[in-house]
Amino acid sequence: MxxxxxxxxxxxxxxxxxxxxxxxxxxxxQINRDNVGRLGVAWTRPGVDATxxxxxxxxxxxQSYYMRGTPIMIDGVLYAPDAVGLIEAFxxxxxKTLWVQQPFPPTxxxxxxxxxxxxxxxxxxxxxxxxxxRDRDLIELDADTGKPRSEFGDHGRVSLDRxxxxxxxxxxxxxxxxxxxxxxxxxxxGGKAGSGFGDGGVETASSPENIRGxxxxxxxxxxxxxxxxxxxxxxxxxxxxxxxxxxxxMGAWAxxxxxxxxxxxxxxxxxxxxxxxxxxRPGADLYSDCLVALNARTGALVWYxxxxxxxxxxxxxxxxxTLGDITVEGRRIKAVMQPNKSAFLFVFDxxxxxxxxxxxxxxxxxxxxxxxxxxxxxxxxxxxxxxxxQGVTPMM
Length: 396
Fold this sequence. Notes:
The protein is mainly β. The protein has a domain at 160-381: Methanol Dehydrogenase, Chain A. The protein has 2 helices and 21 strands. It has helices spanning 50-55, 108-111; strands at residues 72-74, 77-81, 87-90, 97-100, 120-124, 127-134, 137-142, 157-159, 177-179, 182-185, 210-215, 221-226, 257-259, 264-268, 290-295, 301-306, 322-328, 331-339, 345-349, 359-363, 377-381. Strands 1-2-3-4 form a 4-stranded antiparallel beta sheet, with no helix packed on it. The model is unreliable at 1-5 and 193-201 (pLDDT under 50).
């Protein structure tokens, strides 16, 4: 596989996954097998810059310093979310702080938070912006100064709260992805289980999460792709017993990837509410456990594939899809490759969604749980083989 058109061939690291293709590839060769053993620590940085802990000493205690983010490098500057999710810019050669995002509001409550998975970058000539998600907000900062872009939303931020019936706030673990002039935000809606629609008090109700697109200059919301199919969409019929009215979640907990030439964003989707029991939601349950390709400009569905029908195991797409150009029987294919928790790698033509190798539906064992209706079949890729052990055999 070649990097296939990713945007990191200069040696920069412009997205959480290296490039928008999420190939995690760098062409740099200064570090190699002969000298890697001689590497040493050149500098370290605290989880929160001293300028912040100086303003808010209580940040030094009681905060989780679990670091989720991977820095991006643009024009020789590293940008990364810190341990409380604020963006910091620093010199990669020395670790010296260049700027630190100031919290909204400028209080301890505004500064407190959690680390996120990354930021993204947009440029138009000399106009350079850092885009990130923190807690309930989509934010945009001037890349040179760290100051909020006042023309973006409400003085640099846009609320991502969805005002859903369960009144749960948006939780922004994932960073956004910028495709052209559109910021795409995955669903980390934080919807909690409701009062219980299943037998035996099983909690099943929550709000569906959605994928949304925002104008990179103004912050205006451009579109919404509803993960729970809306009225008139045939996919809604895959939810039995009226479950489309109360089942939710299904958001993109893993990062997204994109083909900027096509203008497509690839979104790996997770399981529906209460993935361990599905008696209340008979059917395949689209678009749960799917890889969906969306037109990033309009939010229109280009194609989809469901890796697990009627998920009962939380076997969702917990990793980002990787884009690359592959050669199969002499034919060059623009591919997208999606692993999931079942240890399969599903490989598609990323333009059309057609499987590169056949994916066949095979009968699977059925649940014996009262009220449960397992899917009679599940999709099995014929190539490549599973990358990890699947199942166990009892030894007599």
